Amino acid sequence: MAISFSSSSSSSDNEVQNYSKQCLESFKTLQKNYDSEREKHSRARLEIQGYELALESLESRIIRHEKNELAWGEKYEFQNYELKCREVKNDNLKMELEKVVKEKVELKVKIKKWEESSKGLNKLLNSQMSAKDKNGLGYGTQLDEMSNKSETEISMSVF
What does the record list as coiled-coil region(s) (predicted)? Predict the structure, then answer.
């Protein structure tokens, strides 16, 4: 019986060894697959972390951009307001300048008219009285003074 036991045990040993070899090969294959999948998982985890960091960076940049956009919008509005104020001030100054120029022209016209009317009055006064009549009325000293002055000095003294 020992022989049959040994022969049956050797066949079962062979089977065990075959199964052991198959198990070892399957284990090695599974180990390779596991290592491969673990490496893929590690790469994927690193990529995910990289994407998360990039996403955080983009979100912070977007927030900063939005704040800058608000600040620039406020600055634009303020500068636009300043520009409008300057335009209004400029328009007011232009209107004031036009008014002053018009007034200057009107005053020059008035001065010319007064000078002409003054000349006309002096001619009229001189033509209506003779020198003797003027002296008798007390105009003698004034006539002498007036004859010394030119007509422009007389018209300027009136104004």
Answer: 41-117
Provide the pLDDT for residue 20: 80
Structure tokens, 12: 């079962």
**Between 31 and 134, where is the model more confident?**
31
For residue 20, tell me if it sits in a domain: yes
Q: Does 51 map to a domain?
A: yes
Q: What is the pLDDT of residues 87-99, one digit of tens each?
A: 999 999 999 999 9
Q: How confident is the model at residue 3 (pLDDT cuts 50, 70, 90)?
A: very low
Number of domains the chain is built from: 1
DSSP letter (8 states) at residue 59: H
Residue 88 tokens read as 């209004």
Q: Is residue 29 part of a domain?
A: yes
- Token pair of 155, please? 């018209």
The top-scoring range by mean pLDDT among 11-25, 60-74, 119-133, 136-150 is: 60-74
Q: Are 114 and 159 in contact (CB under 8 A)?
A: yes
> What Rg value do the Cα atoms of the chain yield, rounded?
59
> Could you tell me the CA-to-CA distances from 23 to 10, 15, 63 in Å, in that order?
19, 12, 58
Q: Is the pLDDT of residue 153 over 80?
A: no
Residue ranges making up the domain that contains 66: 16-96
At 37, list the tokens.
Answer: 């999948």
